[in-house]
Amino acid sequence: MVRKPPSRKGSMADVPKDLLAQIERLEELFSVSKEKLIAISDHFVKELEKGLSKEGGSIPMNPTWCMAFPDGHEEGTFLALDMGGTNLRVCEITLTEEKGEFDIIQSKYKMPEELKTGTAEELWGYIADCLQQFIEYHHEGEDLPQLPLGFTFSYPATQEYINHGILQRWTKGFDIAGVEGQDVVPPFEAALAERGLPIKLTALINDTTGTLIASAYTDTEMKIGAIFGTGCNAAYMENCGSIPKLAHMNLNPDHPMAINCEYGAFDNEHVILPRTPYDVIIDKESPRPGQQAFEKMIAGLYLGELFRLVLLDLHQNPDVEIFQGQDMSKLQRPYCLDASFLSAIEEDPFENLSETSDLFHHKLNLSCTKPELELCRRLAELIGTRAARLSACGIAAICKKKGYTACHVGADGSVFNKYPHFKARGAQALRDIFGWGKEVKKDPIVIMAAEDGSGVGAALIAALTLKRAKEGNLAGIRDVDALLNCHKPMPN
After folding, report:
1. pLDDT of residue 492
2. Does one domain contain both 86 and 143?
3. Any domain includes 7
4. What number is the average pLDDT over the span 451-478?
5. Can you give the residue ranges of the Hexokinase C-terminal domain (predicted)?
6. Which of 10, 67, 82, 370 is the most exposed place for a label (fewest CB within 10 A)?
């Protein structure tokens, strides 16, 4: 069994002393020891508990009102709507009698940029138009029943009910006035009603919760859903009795409740995370300084910017010779590099790093010497490795809090799926945290590729919500009579 991910340092024999010294400094800055990982994950557990308490903390630990894992025998046809920053996806998912199996048809629609700063009426109207197009295309002339809809609305929202949600703040480039602080469901349903669509919003969910439920549908060992992409987050099932901030609702203490951690905000107080001067700059110059401390160290949105800041700092250091006499204007643009730039560097298979050289030339108009390329390669490895190792701390913390000694974690997101060695480095970090030695032949906690959380997960949560309403367990459900009419034929 390969215990460590591959690392190519290349030949450092011809690297000048000034650059070698900087490589050593960067290794010290960005490396996270086994002892530090353990300390971070232990502190993380306390912060998760604080988020569930009446006092709360930096990590919101949002109750989702998704109150069961699927048993694999869910049946019926459900719509799923996934509203992303670039595309809108509409799915029709039929859960079959076969355990853990489903049929899916789906269509994608472009989210026009002007919608993101338009009016609320334009936004909900456009989304309703897309749903209408989908239904007319796939069900022309049919007399449809009320179709239950699971809506993946992956923007921070407060939910007192599973089929309602108050938007806390827009993200992903949206800035539509008059929506923040409001329940997003009534205007959305008004747009559906205006078009006479046979659709009832049954569950408003976050993509992380959907990832958890979709993955558990096909894998009974699945206990955590996680996103490692532009941002970072995780969801898991908590016992209602372990959520003090819901004590006033007198819920069955043994009943499960999916918690959307929103743990990108971990350590906003800067108590434990090993921040570098570059992390401090990223936070200070971000739109919301002092927020999302954890996310800013590990998420895809920030990896390229970390890399850029380090290179600029080295270029401006009088004791270091790097990119001498070259035009640095392209590198001086904030966020001109993303995580894919680092991925490409780490994937360069050639000993002379010719692909990395071409990348710098085309993207940044910079010509690199072989020693400069070696430094850039090592820097990309360090930033990517740190992100993967720190990412494992959130997963480890949930496992420690819940007492999971063995489980599967369903993970999605561009960094998890595309960044080289991210999975292997995260697995090694879990070994370090839990002390699994070579005698452990198979890792007890495994992070693996997730099922379709924003599509299948949304449909499943809609199915579970309907099932719960029919059973009379109405905690966190509004408009129950309307929900119970789902799957009944539409009146003529």
Report:
1. 37
2. yes
3. no
4. 89
5. 223-464
6. 370
